[in-house]
Amino acid sequence: MKVILVLLATLLASAPAISAVYSVHCPIDCPSSPDENILIYGHVYALSQDTTTKMADWVAYEVDVVNFGPSPGRDWGNNPLIDKDSRLEESDYSGANASSLKSDKGHQAPLASFASSHYWYELNYLSNITPQHKDLNQGAWKHLEMAVRDAVSYSKPLYVITGPLYTEKMKPLPKADETHSVPSGYFKVIYDAKGNAASFIMHQTSKRSDKYCSKAASLSSIQNKIDYQLPKSLKSSNRIMDLLKC
C-alpha cells in the first residue's frame, strides 16, 4: 500500500496534463501541489509537504461522524512516506512551548475528528503538525474544529483544506537541528460537496479568548497569501457560515 501511495503521489506530481484531482479528502478537486513538494494521499487525509519549510503546505480531509470517538492519545511519529531530510522530528520541537514562540504541536487535521478511525495514528505524524502558539491552538483554532464536528451529521459530511501562512518572518524552533520555517498564521476552508465554503485566517498572535467567527476571511485573501491554487469551484456561502454558528 505504501508503495502504491508513493507511486500515486509521484505520478500525480509529475503529470501536468491532469487538470483536477478528486479524492475522498477533497471531492471537488484538491489544491495544486508545487513541483518540489511531496504529495501524499493517506488513509484519512491528503497533504502536500514543502521540503523547504518542512511543513505541509496544505492538508485536506473529510469530517464525518463515523470517525468520531474518544481520544486515543498523542503518540508522535514520522510519516514513513517522507524522508528525514524533508520533515521535522519530535526532538526539533523540544523547548518550543517554553520559548518565546510558546508553541504547541498543533494538528492541521485534528485528531478528534478521526479518533475512532483505524488510522488515527496518522494524525500524529509530524507531517500533520506545525508549531502553533498555545493560545491559538487551544483557543479559536480548537473551537472552530469543534464547530465543524458539530455541523456534520450522518450522510452530511463537510470537507476542510487547511495550511500555514508565511506573511511575517518568525523565529525558528529553538532546538531544531535543520532549516525550517515557522508559520506566522494559518487558513482553514470548510466546504460541502458542492463547493459552498466558509473560510478563515488565524494569526499566531491570536488571543485565547478570540472568537473563531471573528477570523472569517475571503477565499481571495487566502489565495493571495499562498503560492498554489485552491480549488476554483469553491464559493463563499452564508449557509456554511450558519452551520458553523457564525
Summary, kept brief:
Helix content is 16%, strand content 21%. The protein is an alpha+beta fold.
Secondary structure topology:
Layout: H1 2-13, E1 38-41, E2 46-49, E3 56-63, E4 103-107, E5 129-133, H2 134-137, H3 140-151, E6 158-165, E7 185-191, E8 196-203, H4 219-223, E9 235-236, H5 238-243
Parallel strand pairs: 8-9
Antiparallel strand pairs: 1-2, 2-3, 3-6, 4-5, 6-7, 7-8
**Outline, from the CA principal axes?**
globular
Order of helices and strands: HEEEEEHHEEEHEH
Q: How many E-type strands?
A: 9
Give the class-level CATH name: Alpha Beta
CATH superfamily: Extracellular Endonuclease, subunit A
Counted by DSSP, the helix tally is 5
Q: What structural class should be given to the helix and strand makeup?
A: alpha+beta
Helix content: 10-25%
CATH topology: Extracellular Endonuclease, Chain A
Radius of gyration, taken over Cα atoms and rounded to an integer in Å: 17 Å
Biggest β-sheet, characterized? Answer: 7 strands, mixed
- Terminal CA distance reads 41 Å
CATH architecture: 3-Layer(aba) Sandwich
Mean residue pLDDT: 92
Number of domains: 1
